Amino acid sequence: MTENKRFRPLTVYILLSCCIGLVACGSGSNTENSTSVPDTSIPNSGAAIVDNRGSADYQIIIYGNSHSAKLGDLLEQLISSELTNAQVSTLTVSGRFLDEIVNTSGNVEKLQQANWTHAIFQGQKYSQSGSVNYSTNEAERLIASAKELKITPILFPEHPQQGDSKEGELVYQLHLSISEKEASCVAPIGLVWDKAIAALPELNFYSADGNHASNAGHLLTAMTFYEVITGELADTLAYNAAFAISEQQHQQFGQIITQVLAEHPACPSS
């Protein structure tokens, strides 16, 4: 069993259950899985990032596991409710980790099967102790493939586990190091979570396992991606009573996200 935060003893049973059924425990709008084959390709470095913020329409493909399973649906809700003239669609390609997703037949090719504006990549393996260096080649390949197709690539560093104040920064820095090898946007999810947890101690951001997000946590992550993808400020998002937070908490979410993204821009400046 690999040393990774998603395989801590608290979550082994949950993840095994997910793997028995649907590997990524669900998806945003649409989910696809296939059979694994070896990947022997090498990423093509050097391509610039295409900035698709401000697009007339948004087509978003998401590669990841259970931590990104609800992201597609939430992005569709947020973008369509705020940018009423924009058409929004998402597809989630599910697996446990990016190396397995890339080595599954047909998954990389899905980048070519629609006019995607954005591609989100979540599920990079990493070592909590720092004693193991996992390959980032697969993440780099996905980024390079997206850029060749004029798709804006966005790396998704997961939020920290409950009670681990250092993990969000650690995972964020890992993904920044990937972007240094193959230029990509990096959503500062862990930094947003750290600030929100400190500002809103009364709010539960986690599900019962202390690993996955609660509905409030999923919303915080989705609002962050809303600003990264559209370029519209999260602190201007209208409140929706259907979400599991108060209007005041919603305002604080938006303010925190916009502040963190001002301090840590997701995409390199051109």
Overall helicity: 25-40%
Q: What is the CA-based Rg, rounded?
A: 17 Å
Number of strands: 6
Largest sheet: 6 strands, parallel
**Total helical elements:** 8
Overall 3D geometry?
A: globular
Give the CATH superfamily: SGNH hydrolase
Report the order of strands and helices: HEEHEHEHEHEHHH
Question: Strands of the largest sheet, in order across it?
Answer: 1-3-2-4-5-6
CATH topology: Rossmann fold
How much β-strand is present in the residues? 5-15%
The CATH C-level name is: Alpha Beta
Distance N to C terminus: 41 Å
Uncertain segments are 1-42
Please, what is the average pLDDT?
86
Q: Can you name the CATH architecture? A: 3-Layer(aba) Sandwich
What does this structure look like?
The structure is a single chain. The protein has 270 residues and is an alpha/beta fold. The protein has one domain (5-34, 53-263): Rossmann fold. The protein is built from eight helices and six strands. It has a six-stranded parallel β-sheet with strand order 1-3-2-4-5-6, sandwiched between helices. Strand 2, helix 2 (71-82) and strand 3 (88-94) form a beta-alpha-beta unit. Helix 2 packs across helix 7 and helix 5 (167-181) packs antiparallel against helix 6 (189-199). The model is unreliable at 1-42 (pLDDT under 50).
